[in-house]
Amino acid sequence: MRSLQIGLLGKANVGKSTFFSAATETPVASGNFPFTTIEPNVGVAYVKADCACKHFKIEHQTDLCVNGTRFIPVKLIDIAGLVPGAHEGKGLGNQFLDDARQAEVLIHVVDIAGTTDIQGQPVPPGTHNPLEDVEFVQDEFDLWFADILKRDWDKITREIHQKRAKLTDGIANRFTGLGIKDFQVQDVLQKLGFISRDPKEWSEDDIVEFARELRKNTKPMIIAANKADLCPDLDIIKKINDNVIPCSAETELLLRKASKAGIVNYSSGDEGFSIAEGKEIAPPQQKALDLVKSVFEKIPSTGIQKILNTAVFDSLNFIVVYPVEDETKLTNKDGVILPDTKLLPQDSTAKDLAGLIHADIAKGFLHAIDCKTKQRISGDQKLKNGDVIKIVSTLSRG
């Protein structure tokens, strides 16, 4: 089963590629011109949570568990550049939208300091209103959703009037390529009071309103207010209705590189750093670190880790579950303690976990064991964040 995917989007020159590099430590092309990112770059980023080893008070120091903090991999897709009118085919147009369609949640990197115009061209700081960027990206996605519906609207209405389809099914079938489920369409129809309305009576405004609400529910968007350290007045973020987090991708990238080189002690999400013991700092390095300190005086952290965690745990409401094969030793068959983590939507069941591990295990599911309580649980038992679970199945992965 594919891993959770986060889409990273934004116009040119806002620091999107720097955000990607900082989050994944993968070098990508960056430049002072539109469409620097032509093909989607895919990397692995990590969200952070308390490791289950804390509950069991066991020694568990690995690459993915450091001092009781678990690093959980997610797929981050740095998507090709976007310009106004993309839903009409302008710029890279539908390529952008198609690349983004499989992402469960979107991070929109915005130049909150207003140093780039709507096309991504450099302008003096504060001369462009970043709220325009927030609005145009939301509009592009909403209008893309609306266009998908409008293309087939006559066909949908015919199917419903001929009783060959229900309204929910007729709409959901048009969005299957975006991973949108029937219940999500149903929720939006009910929320807007459209569930019992004849689709022939829907106006174009109704279609756009429905599309906008469906996009919000199925592709939640977090605003990464990048270059926050250069912003003359951060009160501007209060005018953004979406979830917005100030950040400095350039600072995060610098700190990660300095940490990797053994110059500083820093872990993503920290509200500061310290010089590594016994390390002599060259004047150019000291100058860069002084700049980093000035960033922390303006924003509490670089914001990158907070944005990733917010995307997964707040916007998507995912939980972390630890599958094991030995419920006593909390190991896999090779004896590795707490070897794996799975991210699941809230209200997922033990059988959902089995399916995420492997289809054969789900097919032969008998029961599960909650390793914290030592209790046997059924397939429809809802799991909780931090659960450690052994699946008992008649089938294995062979």
The gross shape turns out to be flat
Instruction: Label the structural class.
Output: alpha/beta
End-to-end distance, in Å? 17 Å
> How much helical structure, as a percent, in the residues?
25-40%
| Low-pLDDT segments, ≥5 res | 33-38
Q: Could you give the count of β-strands?
A: 14
* Arithmetic mean of pLDDT: 89
Number of domains: 3
Major pleated sheet: 7 strands, mixed
The third-level CATH topology of the largest domain is Rossmann fold
CATH class of the largest domain: Alpha Beta
Strand portion:
15-25%
Radius of gyration: 23 Å
Provide the CATH architecture of the largest domain.
Answer: 3-Layer(aba) Sandwich
- Write down the secondary-structure element order: EHEHEEHEHHHHHEEHEEHHEEHHEEE
CATH superfamily of the largest domain: P-loop containing nucleotide triphosphate hydrolases
Figure out the total of helices. Answer: 13
